[in-house]
Amino acid sequence: MDGGRRLAQPRKRPSRPASATAAAGRARLKLRIEIPARVKRLARRLVAPIRNRRFPAGAGVAASALIVLASIGYGVVKGDHVPLIIAHMKDGRDAVANAAGFRIGEVSIVGRRQLSEKDILALAGVTERSSLLFLDVDDARARLQASPWIAGASVRKLYPGRLQIEIGEREAFALWQKGGKVAVIAADGTVLGPLADRQYAALPLLVGPGAERKGKDFLAILDRHPAIRDQVRASILVGERRWNLKLRNGLDIRLPETNAEHALDTLVTLDRDKKLLSRDITAVDLRLADRVTVRLSDSAAQAREDALKAKKTKGKGGSA
Question: How many angstroms separate the CA atoms of 116 and 271, rounded?
């Protein structure tokens, strides 16, 4: 105790302010990064032209508008709306031209036999809203010629309001069966479309790969033998080399790879003289020039076998 009878207290070290302690802690954790002087000089050179440049008034608004337009354009492309927008723009342009007196008031179509006028205009891309002024004749011609039914086309504009279209149509020539599907074809082998219209059901039927290309020449040969042609149900190309005929009564006629016309002459003669095609047979093979081979039906073959057996039995009995 001291002289005033007070207990002696230990002396305390003065405490540091809390803010000073926190600052010291941050100082210890802070990393010191030294930026090279070369990098600093380069950064100053890049920033200086922008910092010192004076932009015109409204530059910020223009930049914002560009960003908005770019966003709209991205949305249009991403959403696949471009064709729709182009179509609306064309309609608006044509409406102005029509109002100015360039409406298509008369359409002249030359060479049409099978396609309707409506079909031809649709193929050419001509609608009630189309104007003569903005009609692209090259595009219309290309669209027409893209149809398998049209071999050639020309499109002319006769101002102020007349459109002339001239086409060369392909004609339905035959039916072609491949892979179980039947299509209508032209004489040059062009596939015109699937058999959907019964008006073409009576056309000659060609079967097999390559038959659409070689059918014209073969059917020309067959036309010279109407007695056979009128009985033919289908002409079948075998191995893209030779033809078989399937008759309406189910009889198969096998023609040679070469000189099919001579084989058909032989067949006509046999049918005229011996009624060959009316007999109980299933096939006539004309592939060999020096002989004609026929295949009997099962019933005819059995009857022939029975007749031969009977003949042999009778012969044995007579010899005894």
Answer: 45
CATH fold group of domain 83-169: Ubiquitin-like (UB roll) (3.10.20)
Least confident of 24-28, 200-204, 267-271, 297-301: 24-28
Residue identified by tokens 């003289």 is 273
- Residue 255, pLDDT > 60, answer yes
Question: Taking the domains of the chain in order of start, what are their residue ranges?
Answer: 83-169, 174-303
Contacts of 207 (CB under 8 A, 6+ apart): 176, 177, 178, 234, 235, 236, 237
Q: Return the residue matching tokens 């100015």.
A: 100
CATH code: domain 174-303 is 3.40.50.11690
pLDDT of residue 320: 46
- Whole-number CA gyration radius for the chain: 47
- What mean pLDDT is predicted for residues 265-284? 94
Residues with Cβ within 8 Å of 201's Cβ and at least 6 positions away in sequence, in order, are 175, 195
pTM of the model: 0.64
Q: How far apart are the first and last CA of the chain?
A: 172
Length of the chain in residues, anyone? 320
DSSP letters spanning the chain: --TTS-PPPPPPPPPPPHHHHHHHHHHHH----PPPHHHHHHHHHHHHHHHH--PPTTHHHHHHHHHHHHHHHHHHHHTT-HHHHHHHHHHHHHHHHIIIIIB--EEEEES-SSS-HHHHHHHHT--TT-BTTT--HHHHHHHHHTSTTEEEEEEEEETTTEEEEEEEEPPP-EEEEETTEEEEE-TT--EEEES--GGGTTSPEEESTTHHHHHHHHHHHHHT-HHHHTTEEEEEEETTTEEEEEETTS-EEE--SS-HHHHHHHHHHHHHHH-GGGSSEEEEE--STT--EEEE-HHHHHHHHHHHHHHHHHHHHHH-
